[in-house]
Amino acid sequence: MKQFSNPPDTTLSIADELSALPVSAAHGSHTAHFYSSDSLLVSDIVQCLGATLAAGGAAVVIATPAHRAAFEEQLLSRGLDLAQIAQQGRWLSLDAAETLAEFMVEGWPDASRFAAHIGGLVDRLTSAVSATSASEEPQIAAYGEMVSVLWEEGKTEASIRLEELWNQLAQTRCFHLSCGWPLHFFARDTDGVSIQKICSEHDPVAPGQSYDAMSEDERRRYAVVWQLRAQALEEETHQLEAALRTTERLASIGRLAATVAHEINNPLEAVTNLIYLARQNADLPEPVRSCLVLADEELQRVSHIARQTLGFYRDSASPVSIAVPEAIDDMLAVYHRRVCRKQISLRKSIHTSLRLLTLPGEFNQMVSNLISNAIDASPQGGAIELRAWPSVHPATGAPGIHVVVADRGPGIPEPIRLKIFTPFFTTKKDLGTGLGLWIVKGLVLKAGGFIRCRSRVATPEAAGSGTVMMVFLPCVSDPAAREQAA
């Protein structure tokens, strides 16, 4: 990424945080293995690994040292020569924390590094099995605890993101993955949403060992998991109902605003003409003439805001080519008063000939939300930087543009930053709906792009604070391609 001129500290390293919807494995399975007993976990996982290796397949374990040692002991007791199997390239046993270090960037799993490192491991196993088996679909069994390691460190969102990356990898690789989840992670009544997130990233969700083999305590713990999941589904239903009501209310407000913007044009035009006629009077005193000039300028601004409001409501049915500098300037004009009131200095660095094939209303809505949030976050006399330049998608290489809005406000603490794209989450109390960034992310994903947030809060050890929002939007040549990218 290119640097700002006179950038805030927060622009120096933006983590690679590509947003993507979860997908399911195309050629294998991805299961969540909830367990309360290490011995039962080892017994169940070894049964799967052992059967795969004995059939000529390959296996990889990415776990804690204690579990790795237990797996290897049980596999050896079954008569499997792990040294020979490893020499054939069909067995890998890796430390979870060390493997995480290969692709984690600032506490977040980097998509490209994960694909390169973990994808490379799966490819090695696939090649080893293909060399010794005639099967068209090599059997590869994998067991991982990296997600639970992250969860235990308090990095719950990063853990869910890692599950998503496994699902993406399964679109191009054939393997059967089981992720270990200790039941003691979910002892609170409020863990229902977490359980639901985990379950949504997997195919079957089961205890693995037979229900009859569980103790009474283990059965109660596992029942709690499903109760929490049911509770989360009920909470999600209530949230969706509330979202629907809010959306309907906002749609009504939008229609009203569009009606007002349309109807206000006629009196605006009449007043503008009257001011023009009054200015033609040669005997007009200079102070009065100056006031009329200012009044005309303000009316032009009101007219511009009315046109922008109609532009939000009446969007094009299909993408059109827009001049990005002009579109951003139009949005800045809407917020001109707020910027002046807070005495915010604006720094722009926008490629002069930059164009984008997009829906103008959606682009304006994205930029408007980002600028509005930056203004809200900026202190009196603060600064906002806007940048836009031609770029390519870091993963697919698709051409597009990057748009960056950076402020030097107080920054966003990490616990809050993890929730900023969640609907109805707001720190603005009565002033915000909590839908702005959620809508922005939805529009960006729909366009086939991604959005990243980088923020720093000032501390006694490190001065300087601020937030950077960066959006990548692809240049889609036709509506069908745009829909496919979404």
N/C terminus separation: 24 Å
Weakly predicted, low-confidence segments? 1-26, 205-210, 477-486
- Tell me the strand order in the biggest sheet: 3-2-6-7-1-8
Secondary-structure content class = alpha/beta
As for the CATH topology of the largest domain, it is Rossmann fold
The assigned CATH architecture of the largest domain is 3-Layer(aba) Sandwich
What do these coordinates show?
The protein is an alpha/beta fold and 486 residues long. It has two domains: 210 residues, 3-Layer(aba) Sandwich (Rossmann fold), CATH 3.40.50; 168 residues, Heat Shock Protein 90 (2-Layer Sandwich), CATH 3.30.565. The strands form four sheets. Strands 3-2-6-7-1-8 form a six-stranded parallel sheet, sandwiched between helices. Strand 4 and strand 5 form a beta hairpin. It starts with 28 loop residues before the first strand and ends with a helix.
Give the helix/strand layout.
Layout: E1 29-35, H1 38-54, E2 58-63, H2 65-77, H3 82-87, E3 91-95, H4 96-100, E4 104-105, E5 108-109, H5 111-132, E6 140-144, H6 146-152, H7 156-169, E7 176-182, H8 192-200, E8 205-206, H9 216-263, H10 265-279, H11 286-313, E9 320-323, H12 324-334, H13 336-341, E10 345-350, E11 355-358, H14 360-377, E12 383-392, E13 399-407, H15 414-417, H16 436-446, E14 450-456, E15 466-474, H17 479-485
Parallel strand pairs: 1-7, 1-8, 2-3, 2-6, 6-7, 10-12
Antiparallel strand pairs: 4-5, 9-11, 12-13, 13-15, 14-15
Helix pairs in contact: 1-2, 6-7, 8-9, 9-11, 10-11, 11-12, 12-14, 14-16
